[in-house]
Specification:
With about 950 residues, the chain is α+β, with helices and mostly antiparallel strands. Helix content is about 25%, strand content about 20%. The protein contains 16 helices and 40 strands.
Amino acid sequence: MNALIVDPLSQLARPPALGPRRRAIDAAVARTLGLLISLLLLSCGTGSEQPPPTPTWSIVSSGLDEGLLSISGTAADDVWAVGADQGRGPLVLHYDGTSWSRIGTGHRGHLWWAHALAPDDVFVGGASGAILRWDGSAFARMDTPGLGRQTVYGIWGSSPDRVYAVGSFAGRAGFIWRWDGTTWRVLEIPRDIPLAPNGDYPGFFKVWGDDAGRVWVVGGRGLVLRSDDGETFDVVESGVESTLFTVAGDGDRVVIVGGASNGTLLEGHSGAALVDRTPEFVPLLQGVALKGEYAWASGAMGLVLAREGEAWVPVNHGLGLDVQSLHAVWLDPQGGVWSVGGDVLGPSLDAGVIIHRGPTVPTYDPNPGVDPPVPEVMCPENDVDPAGPGQSIARRWNELLLDAIRRDIPRPGVHARNLYHVSAAMWDAWAAYDTTADGVFVRERTTSTDVAAAREQAISYAAYRVLAHRYDATRAVMPGASLSQACFRAFMGRLGLNPDDTTSTGDTPLALGNRIGAAIVEMHAGDGANEGANYADTTSWMPMNPPLVVDEPKIMLPVPSYWQQINIAEAATQNGIIVPSGVQGYIGANWGEVRPFALEGRRPDGLYLDPGAPPVFEDPKMPDWVVEVVRLEADLAVDPARTIDISPGAYGNNPLGTNDGMGHAVNPVTGAPYAPNVVPLGDFARVLAEHWADGPRSETPPGHWNTIANYVSDHPMHRRCLFGEPACLAGTTPEIDELEHDVKVYLAINGAVHDAAIVAWGVKREFSGARPISLVRFMAQEGTLPLVPGLIERITEESSAPGGRHAHLAPFVGQIAVLAWPGEPGDRAADTTPIQWIRGVDWVPYQRRTFVSPGFPGYVSGHSTFSRAAAEVLAALDGDEFFPGGLGEFVAPANAYLVFENGPSEEVRLQWASYYDAADQAGQSRLYGGIHIEPDDFGGRRLGSQVGELAIARARTYFDGTAVP
């Protein structure tokens, strides 16, 4: 803006060519200034007293990594500023009158507002429905009704037992909570609240209350709510449609600011109508504060306004701020003016700034002195050799790779390929010292006076060369790559081997291993994976549907049979790695073209195997499939009265591609019936969904089946008798040694999961099957989702009446509601989200809100294909489909296992009699998790069975030396 008016105790700046209104304002300010100066002169008399110093503006801090969003306090020497989280936790600063300090909260996510009741009682709210409370020494997270998708944008209170919080979900679906000193509870919003064009009510952004007990709430689309009793809110006509960001007041006066490209400023007194006091030509306003006769506002481009009489005039603070907006302003009891902001009008939330008017205060420097050196990446001691020296060298490298996968982005095809190639490298190094076995890629024959030591060294160099190439961060940036590289090198050092020795000529084990590793890397540089471009799509895939915006209740789905990408505001991979938000990419669109292990004979459509007819939206069974997904999610409700027996005697033993099994009559090893294993259905469903989802720190489904293979190998009742060789099982011939067993198991199982990825992702690319989130929302929006009493219902005037099951959905009469999981709780470690009635257009899978749904089509299920293929291999290698002892188990301890929320409420033991039972549960889990419909699962199981049989047949040829004529 041009020359601006400063505060009344400093010189008036006169802009050229002022309009009539501005000239009138300036004249009024000048008169006020003259009067104030006269009063000051009179008060000075003839004595020697000096007039108080003129308040000045200063920059307390600027250019911070985190944008600042709120400032509050109780005095000039007790000031709190809070803001964004840029990876180190949210910025929380405290000024004690002497210096600034950064306070840790133990919380992750942006903090949007602070309200100080006392020096030892400060409320702070922000992301993940969080409200933190300062007790004078530390912050503690309060137990709120908040979900992970909700953000607390405003807090105000008059006493420790009368505090209000407001917020929204993605700028819509506003909420109001009240703290009574004991609990936070949800207050009802007016039933006549105006709905936005998307069919939802707007978000709420700030709350303030006056001395008479009235409480004001402001939000989107010009929304103003007022409660005269502190409980029941009514809509107040604002006369504007722009977003209203902040409300504040003093006595019976209230001021509301907001806007868009142009600012909005409204004033009101007591119960009187709001009056528009917006100055001409002001941009967006975001902060406002009043105290006595003083009133200040702040906004875009570092704008500050002061109230003069009935007008609001710009103040020339002279600070030359280069920020998007001053987001908040606060007046301390001593008359100081504080304002904070930064680049806070977009997603970056950085470039934080604090400014102050009043006596000089110390500046805040987030990085005093010289920046510390960047520490060298070191592998934690426990990660150098996670399997331990008691295991075979193949097992030790396998566990290192599984850890590397857990650090990386979950790309199942990529990880299956790495597992296969490392397994082949180890196998080729082992086979080189065998007179019968054939190598897969390198078929050398050699010998040594110490074959065991030679094999260990050759296997290590071969595996290291492949892994060092695949996790080379300079070639393709991958999360955790530098740490994984450090662990690979550290493990080589622990083995007494030099990772930098690339000698590849000669007959030494070192040279052999280097040749094998280099050959595998070179032979697969052009295998269709496109690893040189970080596995980018080579098929020119184009979407047939616009993206589904997860945070919006309206869906556009012109081709409902086809997969729809999702657009999420905050994104993370399934193992928790933060990635750029927005429209998800297609992971593995080209994977059907990758060179396989055992598959042969691609069909004209590019597929190796026939998946049968894909599910389409017009299929008469589609409504039933979609309803089943809704019902299974409703089964996540934790109810001790609803139980299920998940023992192998009652659950499993399904014919291929069905869920028709009734369990196994007896344990085939012991001959006795399986003991019942009765648990709450909701606990079982949640554990099942999360265990097989391969969530945070996941080794992904291909790696998961490596962990199962390792579990089987470690079982005390397991014997290393490949293909169920009778004499070995009877003990008349010895078991094969541990290393031979491991290299054979890894080659077969990882060859199978590699081919499973090629088959499944080829089918996904060919048919592009829809995901449940699109199907449920679209059918709910169109009114075609079948109504099922108690599960899927239409909201009516009767059902949404006060006290009714749909009372909280009263604004949406006529729409479809579903009994569902509304999303993860704000505090996932401590809370559980109850199953409840929500609108069908808001339905989400049982997944993290930063993940929601995978970045590739649904049909067929990768989990089902991987799992059945691996199960076929394990059954063939053991010569028996049953786990050792007839029982495999995984224990999920009570209140310590789930990641999406707290739970399970009691210990849950997943149990399987056979590898096929475990594989079937992996497929079933994806329906409980809201990721697949039934045909995706069953089709994947059938294809996986074929893949596994082909893989084990091919592996046998390498084992017995018939692969090479």
